[in-house]
Structures are given as structure tokens and as C-alpha cells.
Amino acid sequence: MFGPSFLGARGDALIDVGILSIVAVVPILLWSWGLARKKQWTLHKRVQLATAALLGIVVLLFEIDLSRMGGIFAVTAGSSYAGTGTLNAWIWTHTAFAISSTIAWVLLVAASLIRFPSPPEPKYFASHRYFGRLAMILMLGSGATAVPMYVYGFIL
Q1: Rounded to the nearest 5°, which phi and psi values hold at 142?
Q2: Which of 154, 151, 6, 155 is nearest to 69 (CA)?
Q3: Does the CA dihedral 37-35-109-93 come out positive or negative?
Q4: For the chain, which ranges sit under pLDDT 50?
Q5: Which of 4, 44, 71, 126 could connect to 35 by a Cys-Cys bridge, CB 3.0–4.6 Å?
Q6: Residue 147: alpha-carbon gap to chain centroid
């Protein structure tokens, strides 16, 4: 459906786009966090909304593609690590981070859009900061676990 991998892996091109997207999100989130720390709230908001929208589209397409191919275990069946504790641990750990970070980020974005005025100001700052850090840590975990899962599942 999406053509062969352009990174030379066993997956298709959308799996490559997915891994590159999640890896790209890590420095974008760190930059956005820096914007918030510098009180550049409007730019922080724009970066977060754009990143959430783009990543949301990629993840939706990725999940449809993965489902169409029979799921992660079917797609990684050609790996020399298929069925091993190593690959399964990376898959389940990444899945836990990906689901929890998605839930945290969606709730944080929705609450922020509802509660913050436009342009943003530091109203509700303490709770936003707490949940923003939580969502960022979970997203960083998702990014950090995506790479070894991709390597063990699609390269080795």
C-alpha cells in the first residue's frame, strides 16, 4: 500500500515514516519546552499544535497500515528476533509508552485549548507544567524505545 521501505528495512515506507517521525518529535519537544521556559507561550502553543496534528496523522496512518498487515507481530515475523523476549520486551515497552504518551498529550492539548486564553498567558501554569512534563517524559520514552524496537523488528 505504501511501497517498500526507503530505509532498507523489512517494513514498508510508512513504518519508516513512523520511526523517523517519532525520532524527530524528540528534539522538537525539547525545543518547545525551551520556548515555554523562555515565556514564548504563543510559539510554544503553535509548535505543540502543529506537532500534535502532524504526529496524529502519521500515527493514524501507521496504525491503519500495521493493522492491514496483520499487526506488529506479523510484520516483525521476518526478524531473527521474532518471538524472543528481547523483541517482545521492546514492542510492549514501546507500546506502553506510545499509548500513555498519546493519552497524556491529547488530554493536555485539549485541556490547554479549553482553559488557556488566546494569546496564552500563565493562568493554570502549575498544572499545565506538571502534565506537560509528564507528557514530554512519556513521549521521550516512546521515542527512545521506538529505535531499538525498529532495529530488532525490522533490521536484524
Answers
A1: -65, -45
A2: 154
A3: negative
A4: none
A5: 44
A6: 12
Grid cell digits, residue 105: 498529550
Binning the chain into helix, strand and coil, the percentages to the nearest 5 are 75, 0, 20
57-75, pLDDT tens digit by residue?
998 998 899 999 999 999 9
- Exposure string (b/e) for 63-94, b if CB count within 10 Å is 16 or more? eebbeeeeebeebbeebebbeeeebbebbebb
What is the structure's pLDDT at 101?
93
Domain boundaries, the chain: 13-155
pLDDT for 1 = 62
Average pLDDT of every residue of the chain: 91
Locate all alpha helices (DSSP H) within 116-156, ordered by sequence: 125-150
Q: Is 145 exposed, middle or buried (0-12, 13-18, 19+ CB in 10 A)?
A: buried
